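Team,

Forwarding the record for the chain on the shared tracking sheet. I've put the sequence and predicted structure together so nobody has to dig through attachments.
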Amino acid sequence: MAAMIRHFRSSSSNSIAQISRSLSTTTASETVKSQNYHRNPIPTSIEPKGKTVQWVFLGCPGVGKGTYASRLSTLLRVPHIATGDLVRDELKSAGPLSKQLAEIVNQGKLVSDEIILNLLSKRLETGEAKGEAGFILDGFPRTVRQAEILTEVTDIDLVVNLKLPERVLVEKCLGRRICSECGKNFNVASIDIAGENGAPRISMAPLNPPSQCISKLITRADDTEDIVKERLKIYWDKSQPVEDFYRSQGKLLAFDLPGGIPESWPKLLEVLNLDEQEYKLSAAA
């Protein structure tokens, strides 16, 4: 982890563009194809018991990376590091980057590699000082160049790519709410979309706040329909190649969310070969 931090610092202070590595030199494992969860082969490197978990969560904005990464973080007892949260924390800090970040985020654009790497290096350094082992990254890497940098300094065991239809993603983003007092996230959208072209029906109940939070709900400034669609377009144009990068290494697990948390969580644990009850008992022991 220390080497990773030093590399990130060097990448940020120097030109990140100088750090590159040809994909053709990567030793590719058996390709993991993007299929539905019940037909998707599992990378053989999934062995969370007794080893450090170093996982990445990919997916479009609003797909639920934070929700599922956070749940797995709690279950496996490793830190959940979301670059989106790092950006929002910096925005609240009124630090030197806050004004620049506000302009970028409010326009629905991607934050530069240099800024993300600076924020991430600070977070990893703090975690190392606390004795953290392993991580689940959420929102990084977003580009092949970032994935190459990550590969240079640490081994990623597994990359989980969460998938939902675009229409569902837009509705989810527009329904997101945050309690201005406690900081918890909720979603008021009630989604029920009929299946098309052989795809199953997708139904997601709202994640409503408790009574004490209702009057304190706020909407993120970038959660408007135009900005959400722009973010999705940027994702497909610039971030989707990251899937191919990890697929070529046999580390990509594509997971089509079948519905909301009650439907999707047990299915995700199933494909990850995780027993929730077993881990809870282990934690209590």
